[in-house]
Amino acid sequence: MSRDFPARKRTAFERTRTQTALAPTDLDVIEGSSVGIIGESGSGKSTLVRLLLGLDRPTSGTVSVDGRRVDARASARSLHWLRRQTGLVFQDPYASLDPRMTAGQIVGEPLWALDIPGDRRARVREVLAQVGLEPEAVDRYPHEFSGGQRQRIALARAIAHRPRILVGDEPLSALDVTVRAQILELLVELRRTSDLTLVFVSHDIGVVQSLCDTVVVMKDGHVVERGSTRDVLLHPTQDYTKALLAAIPVIPGR
């Protein structure tokens, strides 16, 4: 699959040009695996994730989940099958949470929107406890929580409907180091207990190393390297991957 966008015209007489956000790319995500996608800003990571989730449609190629084609042009209701199988955690928890809704309403929203059967209010309480929040959190609003707590709410919303695939688009980058470690530990635990397939976009190579089995390295819309996390990070073959790893800050020893 690939994705092109119209480039902005510099003059009124200039012919319409296209800009490639994602070059022709093949990506297979095996059920139960954890895939990390790394690369600098503008490398095509978020475009790839939007295509995988059916939030955008490819210029060429197709996206399939369990052999079923994802049609981003279809109605929202006809994509419920995909939404039931996927959950998404965004980068900024404050921007992704509706300030007019309580935590309970936010977490429960996909249960009602996707018509998930069962006791939905009980599921909201259950999943809030699963991410480490107290029962009284259901009646509080986003501004009443810390940044780490808001990201826990966003994570609870993403897993409330028991998806098979969890996608994180830089979900830890807006958090401080201590909170980041707590959320990372929570993701590891959720993956172990819920048998989630994880697709994780991050600038933080250390996070990817801790969380992901395989890694995909992107540059200018191209996949330049892929393989097991251990092999790629310890023995990179591409100059770009080597440059990314060399840019990681290191505290020199005595």
TrEMBL record:
One of its GO terms (molecular function) is ATP binding. SUPFAM superfamilies: P-loop containing nucleoside triphosphate hydrolases (SSF52540). Belongs to the ABC transporter superfamily. It comes from the Bacteria. This is ABC transporter ATP-binding protein. Residues 7-245 form the ABC transporter domain. Keywords: ATP-binding, Nucleotide-binding, Transport. InterPro entries: AAA+_ATPase, ABC_transp_ATP-bind, ABC_transporter-like_ATP-bd, ABC_transporter-like_CS, P-loop_NTPase. The keyword Nucleotide-binding applies.
